[in-house]
């Protein structure tokens, strides 16, 4: 994992006439993609040709995957403009390019690369972004994701999410004898690696805010309990020896506590575990099933699902007063709430009329919007910036032994469902999106 990336931002100003700012409207349900022309990358120093091509390909793919950008065909590019020279904007107008991206990859001392890039507003005839990113050679792919993040952020005003990872459960084998291993990959599916052994049966992985730890459910020694995994050392630790089964863990926004569900005498309640003091605090009470806790980004509230009203619905708990409010009243059952990083939405799973749905609503339960629906889908998790939701969908199959699960993400407008490609024979379930990498 990359320990540090140095980013330099420098302004390059030109005296140009005032014009409307180039920015994509990402609130609308359907938008006309901005056309982006990405030039071939200039290379300085002894850099393998495939490295520069890889960087360009990754930036192309990242931007295209959002549905907000149209990448101009490379065959249509009219000229090659060297870094530091003014483009002939009329030529780029002619191919209907709205944005031009120039870049240069330089080999530096100490096995490092520098990736310098300029972003031009073709219609406005001005440079709107200029950055120089530095990282180790083995992190060249991260340089590309960071470049894509910078372009995305400049053109949308939103937080980028390309330099992130997804932890999930990789399933193999027939449905009646599935092997469940925890795995991690880049948000585009690259570099998947396993975090647990074939002998482990694990579920429900979630990142800590600082990306150093994953909390998950393990059935090690036939004892279903919450464990933690240190991503730096690989060390695994059982959270504690409690009186009942523990499951559905989530970190608090400050990383100092873990919310989890515990089953005692057939009743499931939500508890909060203090990592420093190793003490548990019970948060829900009564004779109902309470699970799937999710903190609000300020750590003051918690969404969860409960059957206390007779069927499964979503509630919000005020962690300071203990007050609980039901927020879902639509037809069907609601589960697996996930609070968005900006606090504006709660994602959920809904089951109605024999169909599963992924949706979002406000923390007050208003403005419910369905983003995707299918035979079986569950486990929504947010990208940084609160623009996209990742989830998994299982296809209905004639033969249950061949049932296939996919990991997909969708925009909060309900547009542009994107499937993350997994290696052959792997079914992906229970994905969780990381914060931006450190």
Automatic annotation (TrEMBL):
Primary subcellular site in the record, as a coarse category: periplasm
Organism for this UniProt entry: Candidatus Enterousia avistercoris
UniProt GO cellular component terms: periplasmic space
Keyword Cell cycle: yes
Name of the protein this chain belongs to: Tol-Pal system protein TolB
Keyword Cell cycle: yes
BP-aspect Gene Ontology terms: cell division; protein import
Record-annotated TolB N-terminal domain positions: 22-127
Pfam families noted in UniProt: PD40, TolB_N
Cellular localisation: Periplasm
Gene that specifies this protein: tolB
Similarity-based family: Belongs to the TolB family.
Span of the signal peptide: 1-20
Keywords of this entry: Cell cycle, Cell division, Periplasm, Signal
Subunit structure: The Tol-Pal system is composed of five core proteins: the inner membrane proteins TolA, TolQ and TolR, the periplasmic protein TolB and the outer membrane protein Pal. They form a network linking the inner and outer membranes and the peptidoglycan layer.
Function statement: Part of the Tol-Pal system, which plays a role in outer membrane invagination during cell division and is important for maintaining outer membrane integrity.
């Amino acid at each position: 994992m990359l320990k540090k990336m140095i980013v330099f931002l420098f302004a390059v100003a030109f005296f140009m006439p005032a014009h409307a700012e180039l920015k994509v409207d990402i609130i609308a349900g359907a938008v006309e993609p901005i056309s982006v022309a990405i030039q071939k990358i200039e290379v300085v120093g002894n850099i393998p040709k495939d490295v520069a091509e890889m960087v360009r390909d990754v930036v192309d793919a990242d931007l295209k995957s959002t549905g907000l950008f149209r990448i101009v065909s490379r065959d249509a590019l009219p000229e090659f403009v060297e870094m530091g020279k003014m483009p002939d904007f009329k030529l780029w107008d002619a191919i209907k390019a709205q944005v031009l991206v120039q870049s240069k990859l330089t080999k530096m001392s100490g096995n490092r690369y520098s990736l310098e890039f300029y972003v031009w507003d073709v219609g406005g005839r001005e440079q709107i972004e200029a950055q120089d990113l530095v990282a180790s050679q083995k992190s060249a792919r991260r340089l590309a994701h960071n470049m894509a993040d910078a372009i995305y952020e400049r053109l949308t005003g939103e937080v980028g999410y390309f330099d992130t990872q997804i932890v999930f459960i990789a399933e193999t084998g027939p449905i009646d004898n599935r092997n469940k291993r925890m795995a991690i990959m880049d948000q585009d599916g690259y570099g998947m690696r396993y975090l647990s052994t074939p002998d482990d049966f694990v579920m429900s992985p979630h990142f800590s805010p600082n990306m150093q730890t994953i909390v998950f459910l393990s059935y090690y020694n036939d004892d279903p309990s919450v464990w933690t995994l240190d991503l730096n050392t690989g060390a695994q630790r059982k959270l504690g020896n409690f009186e009942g089964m523990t499951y559905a863990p989530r970190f608090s926004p400050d990383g100092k506590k873990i919310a989890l569900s515990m089953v005692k005498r057939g009743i499931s309640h939500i508890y909060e575990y203090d990592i420093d003091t190793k003490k548990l605090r019970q948060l829900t009470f009564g004779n109902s099933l309470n699970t799937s806790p999710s903190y609000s980004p300020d750590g003051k509230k918690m969404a969860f699902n409960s059957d206390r009203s007779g069927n499964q619905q979503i509630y919000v708990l005020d962690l300071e007063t203990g007050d609980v409010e039901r927020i879902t009243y639509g037809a069907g059952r609601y589960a697996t709430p996930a609070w968005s990083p900006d606090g504006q939405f709660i994602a959920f799973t809904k089951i109605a009329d024999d169909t599963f749905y992924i949706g979002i609503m406000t923390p007050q339960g208003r403005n419910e919007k369905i983003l995707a629906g299918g035979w079986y889908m569950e486990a929504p998790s947010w990208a940084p910036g609160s623009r996209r939701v990742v989830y998994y969908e299982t296809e209905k199959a004639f033969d249950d032994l061949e049932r296939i699960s996919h990991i997909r993400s969708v925009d909060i407008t309900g547009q542009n469902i994107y499937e993350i490609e997994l290696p052959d024979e792997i079914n992906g379930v229970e994905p969780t999106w990381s914060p931006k990498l450190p």
